[in-house]
Amino acid sequence: MARQHHYRRRTSQPSDLDMTTFLNLMVVLVPFLLITAVFSRITIVELSLPSSAGGSSAVEPKFRVEVVVRDAGLELTNGRTVIAAIPKVEGAYDLSTLGEMVMALKRENPDSSAASVLLEPQIEYDHLIQVMDVLRSAVVPGEPLPTGEQQVAQVALFPDISIGDAP
Prior knowledge:
The protein is an alpha/beta fold. Helix content is about 25%, strand content about 25%. The model has no long low-confidence stretch (mean pLDDT about 80).
């Protein structure tokens, strides 16, 4: 009969996990992910759409700026009459003239904050955003600094903007 040798297996203590490889990976991976992450700022502009459910009111409506964006140019109205027609300059809307006129209207009506932008159907979305930016705020020169530079300030003009279709 064959003799069987029974060797006693050595039971050793369970070994500790070696975390250095994992930590090396994290040291490289975390900064890489932070650097390559795209940080975007999302801005939401709250708009109020005009409603057709408005009833008759005995109160005189407040002043409201309306800008009608047409293919030929811009029309600045007070809701009832056209204040100014601003034609395109070299194929682009004259937003600087619009800004000057809107600032003049704000000086005349400092308590008013409502404005409407009315568009013809074929007007591009980018033009709507540009007109809204001009209506919402303006950059005005402030007091001169001791260094001789001009200080600038951003003022709110008509931040409550409604949009709609042009008549």
